[in-house]
Give the backbone structure.
Amino acid sequence: MVKNIYLSKQEQMVFNVISSSDIVYTDEIDDIFPSLLPNQINKICHSLSSKGHLYRLKKGTYMVQKKPSDLPIIKNPYRIASALFKGYIGFSTALRLYDLIDYEPFTIFIVTENKSAEKIIGEYTFKSVAMGKKASGMTYYKDVYISTIAKTFFDCFYKPQYGGGYSTITKALHDADIVWDEFLDHFDFASSSLCQRTGYILELLSQEADKIPEEVLQYFRKRIKNNTKLLQSGSGKGTYIKRWMLLDNLGKENILSWWYHG
C-alpha cells in the first residue's frame, strides 16, 4: 500500500503528460519541459517513484504505473526488457512473440553484443545474453526489436539452453514458416560442431515430419569435420551417429518428445 499519493503541482504536471506511456526516460521529460532543470526532473521522478506512480528500471528509465503501487505492475515485459538492455528480444522469448510456443515464459531473453546480465523485476527475470558479432539479424515486430524467425532458430541452435531445449526448438521449427536461405546464411561462419548438431536434429525432424528441404540437409552434411557431442557439457554416453560424426547423448525421443508423446 502506498502511503502518500499526493502529488505536488510540478509532479502532477509531469505525470499528466507521461501517464499515457508505458516507459518514460528522463531525457524525454527534459525535452518536453525545457524550463525544468535536470536535477528538478530527477527529483520529480524520484518522488513519483516513491509514491508508486513510477517504477525505476535503471538510471533515467522508469516504468509508468497506471495505478500507484509499491510493487511493479508489468503489462508488457518485452518492452521492459528492451528498455533494460540494448539489444533484441531472442531465444524462447522470441519464439513466444512469434506464437511458436504456447506457454508464457517468465524469463525474458535479450540478445546483446557484449553484456550478459540479469535483473529480477516482479515475477519476471530479465536476462541479457552476450553474442558478440552474432548479435545481429533483428527486425521490428510488436513494438520491440526482435530476431527474425530465421535468426531466432540460429540463436536457439547456438545456445539451446536459452531456447527451451531441443524439444521446444524442434516443435517450434515444425510450426514455423522459415526462410531457409536466411537461416543458412547465419551458419556460414559457424563452427563445424554447431553445423553437425544442427544438421543431425534437422534430419531427425525431417524423418518424422518431412519438414526440412533436402538442400538444407546437404548444406550441413558438407560441414561435417570432427567428432562432437550433441550436448556439449552432457554425458559421454549415448549413441554414436557415424554419418554426422556425432554422439547423441540426449536421445531421439527426448529431442522429439512432442512428436512421440504430444
